[in-house]
Design a protein that fits this description.
The protein has 408 residues and is mostly beta strands. Helices cover 11% and strands 47% of the residues. It folds into 3 domains: 63 residues, no CATH class; 236 residues, no CATH class; 75 residues, Immunoglobulin-like (Sandwich). The strands form 5 sheets. Strands 4, 5, 6, 11, 12, 13, 14, 15 and 16 form a 9-stranded mixed beta sheet that branches. Strands 7-8-9-10 form a 4-stranded antiparallel beta sheet, with helices on one face. The radius of gyration is 28 Å and the shape is globular.
Length: 408
């Protein structure tokens, strides 16, 4: 196909280059314009005047705008949340942003391609109907529709140091009007202990669009027979404060960003110990939501002055995980709480390092423990009283965690 002088003129003045008999390539935005559109414009009378040149440029500007690839604002609804039975692979990464500046805006691009996953896990969204009858009575009861949960995930508020509660769960409720946490549960001496929120701890209200805000205040109380009492109050403010393009090691996505600021007031009363003062924490979480992934593509959690968690959907890289990375049943601290010292013990899994962190994610100390089956925790290594997270690292990305309380 021969390119006419007029066509060459248009290519020169509009950024279009001849590509094939069916397409022309635009160097301005790296998109393609159908040849029929280009040739139709090329057959227009062209005279050496500014008027006709501007008409042609305007015409092609219109077609180039239509051909321009890009993302637009999205609306998140109840159908964009996870479903029971789903699972997703997430990687935990490390990010350091000076001053915790997480800029946002309209049609914004968040580039996190430099994130490096330190460990991976597979999140499972558990069907409440498959759990024990006590949990179903609390969270799948047709006589209490406001507290019915759509699914549960492992971990949560009932993972409390000093209390022998195992297998903690968090229950989520998803409705056409909103999504959030409706309660928690755990097992004490093999007996299921559920705790329902008085109202929904709202993460998002639907339909969720850029600029939307929400507020919620919820409380959950749990009496654990012959052991004690726990309570959590949550005051949460959320705002959809940005939309645009998110780039992670997993890919490029059209997203809506949600900023959630929450105040947690956790109280624990163990019958055989003096009352502990409430633990109050301020958390800010950034959720990057898309239309087709359910779970947030990227979550950044800031606790106090520290970035505590960075988690993003990823491809599975680790296939052998060893013991459960969250609850290695052989891992224990005694005594807990402790004052001058405590002993950390575990089973026969060959962990190679031990790390202790504050709740804000600050590393307190690290030790090599390869070949050991226990470790003496010297209370003098802890800067102050409070709750600390102990991590044991092994091969193939295995990480086991346990919490300990240091008291004066």
């Amino acid at each position: 196909m021969e390119v006419s002088v007029v066509e060459k003129y248009l290519c020169l003045h509009t950024g279009l280059l001849y590509y094939s008999e069916s397409l022309y390539y635009c160097t301005l935005n790296k998109g393609y314009v159908p040849a029929r559109v280009f040739l139709a414009a090329a057959r227009l009378p062209v005279v050496n005047s500014i008027y006709h040149t501007m008409k042609l440029l305007f015409l092609f500007g219109f077609f180039l705008l239509l051909a321009r690839p890009g993302f637009s604002q999205i609306t998140i609804t109840t159908g964009d949340m996870p479903n029971a039975g789903d699972s997703v692979v997430v990687s935990s990464g490390i990010v350091s942003t000076p001053g915790h500046s997480f800029p946002t805006g309209e049609d914004y691009t968040w580039d996190y391609t430099w994130l490096t996953g330190q460990e991976q896990e597979v999140l499972h969204f558990l069907d409440v109907g498959n759990l024990n009858m006590i949990y179903q009575a609390a969270f799948n009861n047709p006589l209490a529709p406001a507290h019915r949960a759509n699914y549960a995930t492992e971990g949560g508020f009932m993972d409390i140091p000093g209390m022998p509660v195992s297998d903690p769960l968090t229950f989520f409720r998803n409705t056409p009007s909103g999504f959030g946490i409706i309660g928690y549960a755990g097992e004490y001496m093999g007996f299921p202990v559920p705790g329902r929120n008085d109202t929904l701890d709202v993460f998002y209200r639907f339909p969720l669009e850029y600029g939307d805000t929400s507020f919620s205040h919820t409380t959950v109380n749990q009496d654990i027979p012959s052991l004690g009492h726990v309570e959590r109050q949550v005051i949460r403010h959320t705002q959809a404060d940005g939309w645009g393009t998110l780039i992670t090691p997993y890919g490029t996505f059209n997203v809506l960003r949600v900023r959630s600021q929450a105040t947690y007031r956790d109280s624990v009363k163990i019958d055989t110990l003096p009352a502990f003062p409430p633990l109050v924490t301020q958390r800010v979480e950034y959720f990057f939501l898309s239309k087709d992934h359910g779970h947030p593509l990227l979550t950044i959690e800031v606790v106090g002055p520290q970035i505590a968690r960075v988690e993003y959907i990823d491809s599975l890289r680790v296939t052998r995980r060893g013991p459960d990375h969250t609850h290695d049943q052989s891992l224990s601290i005694y005594p807990n709480p402790f004052q001058s010292s405590a002993t950390l013990t575990w089973g026969d899994y060959p962990y190679h390092s031990l790390e202790v962190y504050t709740l804000y994610g600050q590393l307190v100390f690290r030790r090599d423990i390869f070949g050991l089956g226990d470790f003496h925790l010297d209370g003098g290594l802890f800067p102050s009283s409070g709750v600390y997270i102990v991590k044991l690292r092994g091969g193939s990305g295995v990480v086991s965690r346990i919490r300990g309380i240091k008291v004066k």
